[in-house]
DNA sequence: ACCTTACTGCGAACAACTTGCGTCTGAGGA
DNA sequence: TCCTCAGACGCAAGTTGTTCGCAGTAAGGT
């Protein structure tokens, strides 16, 4: 065991989850490389769990300076195609990525750009309605609702 | 009065609405030019009322070949900042624009990319919930819901 | 240890806008 | 009607965020 540098109280949780995710990737025919490990770790330890590709690259490059931005993009794509991470694309600027640990949606503030998670259960009624009226199957993820957050009102 | 070319049964409605919109623009300090008139007309007559900037440019350029794409973008921006048109940005590809004639939202199919309008009233309950739980004021427009449409399921 | 072949770094390509610049023009006023 | 001048235009060049082609590297099954 032992030492990654800078251990924190919850590093065990992070490490366990990290390995769980990486095995899922490996079991699906993917390979686990230093870069990929670092990208997943960055996603796990990101403050608000919603980060851009460049955020991830910046974090990763603190420890591994030659992991290229395009590797981050390719890793995110590999994880997305396996349903491990999700992408939120609020029109302006870069897309934001997050682990799909639980079904949730996003309230995106038009003013400050902050992203708030909303549990999927708030949407069950709406989902049923869209299904009934339009035969449309709402994705359980990826939904971004624009508006104005409490702070910016 | 009289003749634009190629008159159709509902051209009067279109023309009336066109002038209404252009006056709103003019009353707000904007200027009405040939290009802007053509852009608004393209929005009014678009088949599904949800068009990309390039769609608009293509339509406009049939009659006015030297209206530049950048003029279309600038006109759309002018109209958006005045709340006359709205923009839907489904992650992939170009943004789609539409007149804000009534409050509605969008069901965007992940597979075929089709956009279905949903009246805002389906969202009143959800809006109240977001307000109550997070103090978040959902925009009455611009909401795009990802998923799979009836045809693609 | 060996052999596939997925993954990588790098730079160049790409799509969708956005902007700087010099010219032109709509529309309120003299 | 004519002036004038900020707002709008055409054009080309620039930005931004993301993807791709290539040749080299290294996972991981055998």
What report would you give on this structure?
Two copies of one chain form a homodimer. Chain A has 153 residues and is α+β, with helices and mostly antiparallel strands. Chain A is 42% helix and 17% strand. The first copy, chain A, contains five helices and six strands. Chain A has helices at 11-27, 34-45, 53-63, 69-81, 124-134; strands at residues 85-88, 96-99, 104-109, 115-119, 137-138, 144-148. In chain A, strands 4-3-6 form a three-stranded mixed beta sheet, with no helix packed on it. In chain A, strands 1-2 form a two-stranded antiparallel sheet. In chain A, helix 3 crosses helix 4 (69-81). The longest helix of chain A has 17 residues, at 11-27. The mean pLDDT of chain A is 89. Strand 5 of chain A pairs antiparallel with strand 6 (144-148) of chain B. Chain A binds a DNA duplex (30 and 30 nucleotides) through residues 26, 29-33, 35-36, 52-54, 66-71, 73-75, 77-78, 93-95.
End-to-end separation of chain A in angstroms reads: 49 Å
Query: How many strands appear in the DSSP assignment of chain A?
Result: 6
Strand content of chain A: 15-25%
Radius of gyration of chain A: 17 Å
Spell out the helices and strands of chain A N to C.
HHHHEEEEHEE
Largest interface pair: A-B, 34 and 34 residues
Unreliable spans of chain A are none
Helix content of chain A: 40-55%
The number of helical runs of chain A is 5
What's the arrangement of strands in the largest beta sheet of chain A?
Answer: 4-3-6
Task: Find the structural class of chain A using helix and strand composition.
Answer: alpha+beta
Largest sheet of chain A: 3 strands, mixed
- Tell the overall outline of chain A: globular
Overall pLDDT score of chain A:
89
As an assembly, this protein is homodimer
């Amino acid at each position: 065991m032992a030492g990654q540098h800078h251990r924190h109280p919850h590093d065990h949780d992070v490490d366990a989850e990290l390995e769980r995710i990486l095995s899922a990737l490996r079991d699906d025919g993917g390979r686990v490389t230093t870069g990929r490990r670092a990208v997943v770790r960055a996603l796990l330890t990101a403050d608000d769990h919603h980060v851009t590709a460049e955020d991830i690259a910046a974090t990763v490059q603190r420890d591994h300076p030659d992991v290229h931005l395009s590797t981050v993009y390719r890793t995110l794509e590999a994880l997305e195609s396996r349903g491990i991470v999700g992408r939120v694309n609020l029109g302006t600027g870069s897309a934001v990525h997050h682990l799909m640990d639980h079904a949730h949606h996003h309230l995106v503030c038009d003013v400050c750009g902050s992203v708030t998670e909303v549990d999927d259960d708030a949407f069950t009624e709406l989902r049923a309605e869209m299904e009934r009226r339009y035969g449309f199957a709402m994705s359980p993820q990826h939904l971004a609702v624009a508006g104005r957050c409490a702070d910016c009102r």
